[in-house]
């Protein structure tokens, strides 16, 4: 008799229904919102800790791009719950450098932004190119800032109301660099990430 494959939660390995990637218990523990304020506001759906950190690692490092749909759904609901003004928003995302794209085969923030924009009906645009030489995950706080400083370029005229999507906000270096390119060119600029990391170490795999 052929064994029937039983799907398991990608976080805790508990059995789940077919078509599900995570169990209800883990899903219910993902949301822990916070806000980073600087030149513009960046809203975080959760914290980079278990179980959300495990799901992000599965997404980014173990070839589970379908998790992007979960993240896109989460961020879309988060955006609605935050009750932003009803404007003609355009969605963009923090870029990855060449080595990261080569290693993963995709841009994590792009996949999330794609599902986010589809759900909300907002157009999506690739506004940036990255000339960074090293992956941010390999660097400490100071070097993360140095790595992106003047290395992310604006490649299109930005729309007036922009939502920038990213997966993990660690030091804020990439999001802030992107924001600096837009802050005087947009009427409304909003950052939204899946998770914020409150503590990290060198080679933390964020």
Automatic annotation (TrEMBL):
Family annotation (CDD domains): PRTases_typeI
Source organism, top-level taxon: Bacteria
Family assignment from sequence similarity: Belongs to the ComF/GntX family.
Protein name: Phosphoribosyltransferase
